Amino acid sequence: MARILIIDEDPKIRRFLGINLRAIGHLVEEAERKPAGIRFWQEREFDLVILDLGQPAMIGPEFLAVLENKGTVPTIILSECADEVMIVKVLDLGANDYVVKPFSIGELIARVRVALRKVQPRDAPRIVEAGDVRIDLAERRVTRDGRDIHLTKREFDLLKTLASRPDHVLPHQFLVKTVWGHVRGNAITYLRGYIMQLREKLERTPSCPTIIVTEPAAGYRLRTDQEQTRSILDDRWQVKRKMKNE
Question: Is the pTM here over 0.70, yes or no?
Answer without folding.
Answer: no
